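FW: tagging you since you asked about this chain on Friday. Here's the raw sequence from the shared folder, copied in full. Didn't touch anything.
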Amino acid sequence: EGEWMRLFRAGRGYLGTELFQHTVDETRFVTIDRWESREAFEMFRARNVHAYAELDARCERFTSSETLLGETEE
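HL: got it, structure written out here
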């Protein structure tokens, strides 16, 4: 129910976010954002480029590194 979810909910096709915390290193997390399609996410990003960048910049201090683990389509 955080700021990212509130921003994502503005996008058509957003299905939800799951957050997982590492069981040993409690400073490590994996986030899974689900969208109806890659196109839905890309449209959201295009329409919300400034809000996304602003929120990402505000949250930067909480992140020591970020790695895209992959993308899937069903």
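FW: The CA atoms of residues 22 and 28 lie 5 Å apart.
HL: agreed, and Strands lie at 14-21, 29-35.
FW: great, closing this out.
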